[in-house]
Amino acid sequence: LGSALTVAPPPWLPTDEVVDAEAMLRGHKGPPLFWDIVPLFEDDLHENGMSLMKVSVFVGEDFWFVNLRFYLRVTKVMARVIDTRFTCRTNVLPIKIHRERLWKEGTWEDLVGKGVKGGMVSLEQMNDRIAAKRLRNKVEPERHVMTLPGSKASAANASLDDVLLFSRSDLYCEAISGVREGNFAALAGGGTKVEVFNGSTGEVKWSKEVLTMAGLVSISVSPADPLIALGTEQGGVLVWNSRNGEQKSCFTVSPPVPRGQRRQNTKRWVEKLTWSPDGEFVGGAAGQIAVTAKKSGKVVADRMTEGNSVSAIDFSNDGTMAVASYGRVQWAGAGGGKPDLKRGAAAVLDLSVSRDGEVAVGFLDKTLRVYAPAGDKDWSGFDSGVNLVEYSAGGEYLAAAGGAVLLIVPRGLVAGEPPIICRTPGQAEADGIGTCGRFTAMTWAKSFVVAIE
After folding, report:
1. Which residues are within 8 A (CB) of 219 and not within 5 positions of it... i.e. 6 or more apart?
2. Cα(355)–Cα(325) distance, rounded to whole angstroms?
């Protein structure tokens, strides 16, 4: 599955226009096309009140309305209602979505009325609908509008091709990496075959069987030259021409196993590969060893982690390589000396370094942390460990996947604005991903991300 970002997501812009959603609902004639209330959580505060969050959805013939409501009532103390409303008229062009944020709050007397503070009050009647009518605004309402691409008078003109590039149910791959000019390279056949295919159609451009006893376990494509790096089960890295599969060079990350030991030693598998931004160096890691080599195959630097295997690697713009292991990110290469990035007892699954030095790290505890000069930021909401993390080629977006959830964050996202979130098809469950498929591989091209389920 490939999702394109060739057209940037339309922005939310401030507006003074007020949409009377209640009047639209009252004026609707006939049954709704769809209507539902989805409770997200509810708690009685140990019988001291009520706290709930729910989503109300109403779809009519020519409009739809969605309201996300948080309601808090502390008995004989206070009450609060926070609404985020989305309204869209589908019969008016250009099609716009209006968003209104309301925060209402007041004392117990504001909710139940003066003169009844010591009297009997029906708490069942003091529900969120009553509170929304009686309480006053704590802050001024915030109103924004979004113009949908593809509608008349819209500056952008998107189509289905901008959202879904291709879908191939027969492509089962162990790893995938972006190739220049909109093509992609993947490992298939249980690590015995390399395929390069068109990123827009899924058509295979060339396919080559691996004529070696060492199966392939990883793949990475040079951002500057038509070269592919392939990690093997026997501790080596092969560098191929991405246009025809011809081998150009090779180097060793993990030395051969002494005679008499098991040949199947997973600590020698080169499961981590990455290229420097200029394409001059390629990095590989196996077990506790991380190696940097020139594209010609000459090894120029290596590093061994302390006690734990290398879980992820990536180059920064200054030529140093970030090397992740349990609970930390270290640096290797000529530009060393950078401080380690630490996060206590947390298993690192993947990382990516942006052009301007941000480091995004995915953890086993279903979180993503972005280390940035302006301050660190954490993202949650994944339903499994965040094992896929990558900045786009130009650094405009950060993509991360964990389980059935794919998160895409535009750089410079304003606080309070939502990121882009995708899920695999299926039925999610509270204690897991249910019947949803898991994202197993992911890569960026210039303007779109390809994620394999």
Report:
1. 175, 176, 177, 185, 186, 187, 194, 228, 229, 230, 231, 273
2. 22
CA distance 229 to 295: 9
- Strand, helix or coil for residue 110: helix
Q: What are phi and psi of 450, to 5 degrees?
A: -110, 125
Distance in angstroms between the alpha carbons of the first and the last residue of the chain: 7
Beta strand spans in 200-305 (E)? 204-209, 216-221, 227-232, 236-241, 247-252, 272-275, 281-286, 289-294, 299-304
Alpha-carbon distance 248 to 167, whole Å? 32
Closest by CA position to 332, among listed 346, 350, 319, 349: 319
- Is residue 389 within 8 A of residue 362, CB to CB? The reply is yes
Q: 286 with 270: CB under 8 angstroms? A: yes
Predicted local confidence at residue 119, as pLDDT: 54
Q: What are 367-426's pLDDT values in tens digits?
A: 999 998 888 899 998 989 999 999 987 888 999 999 989 999 988 887 777 888 888 887
Q: How far apart are CA 5 and CA 150, in angstroms?
A: 14
Per-run averaged pLDDT (10 residues), the chain, 453 residues: 50 90 87 92 90 94 94 93 94 90 93 67 79 93 87 38 40 58 71 75 77 76 87 90 86 77 66 90 92 92 84 90 90 72 87 91 94 89 92 88 91 80 77 75 72 66
> Which of 327, 294, 299 has its CA nearest to residue 312?
327
At 446 the pLDDT is 60
In contact, 447 and 161? CB cutoff 8 Å:
no
**Buried b / exposed e across 334-354, counting CB within 10 Å, b at 16+?**
eeeebeebebeebbbbbbbbb
- Phi first, then psi: give them for residue 85, nearest 5 degrees: -105, 135
Q: Which helix (H) or strand (E) holds 129?
A: helix 128-134
Judge contact between 179 and 214, C-beta under 8 A. no
Measured CA to CA, the distance from residue 263 to residue 215 in angstroms comes to 12
Beta bridge partners of 66: 57, 86
